[in-house]
Amino acid sequence: xxxxxxxxxxxxxxxxxxxxxxxxxxxxxxxxxxxxxxxxxxxxxxxxxxxxxxxxxxxxxxxxxxxxxxxxxxxxxxxxxxxxxxxxxxxxxxxxxxxxxxxxxxxxxxxxxxxxxxxxxxxxxxxxxxxxxxxxxxxxxxxxxxxxxxxxxxxxxxxxxxxxxxxxxxxxxxxxxxxxxxxxxxxxxxxxxxxxxxxxxxxxxxxxxxxxxxxxxxxxxxxxxxxxxxxxxxxxxxxxxxxx
Length: 244
Known about the structure:
Blueprint: H1 2-22, E1 42-45, E2 51-55, E3 58-79, H2 85-89, E4 95-102, H3 104-108, E5 116-119, E6 124-127, H4 131-136, E7 142-148, H5 152-158, E8 166-178, E9 199-210, H6 215-236
Parallel strand pairs: 7-9
Antiparallel strand pairs: 1-3, 2-3, 3-4, 3-8, 4-7, 5-6, 8-9
Helix pairs in contact: 1-6
């Protein structure tokens, strides 16, 4: 009897794990917003001079353009290890992640979950089949941010982000590139689209001000724990061969 019950729990937990894993990056249904997500990103002139930033045995020239502070809801992201695809070919190890965020009315929209967001190598993309969701979406309340920093603490914090997190990023909009090579630019307005519309931020401060709470993510870890427990029980229980 115990073996039969354990087998049933094992099957249910395995199926739940698969479904929860597939949906783990869905935006939470109910979100408690930090009040600063009401605000547009803060961009001001800066007197910071160009600087050289060494990282991963490469020296990068970084040219700050504006001081910048952003509060946003993470809707998509792509972590970079600097050793894959275009980043390796361009010797770009400084770019630690691309983080796509929304704020203000777009973040607060009750139809936000009807939008699908995903990151390409250098882009953030959005689509939906829901006309109401699309009408509530404002492209100038979305930004795809190339985050750069040589600070290991900041890089560790950025590596912890998840969809649904509310984050604060402070630093400089900047151009950068390996010394002796070309410079990657930055957008300086939220009203542009297409190539060159992404913000490149030299990060001085980064924090997750409100972690995202996902029921699917909780279900994924819970079902994984139950699955492992039932597997352990399966191998501990004595083997009883069936008889005709």
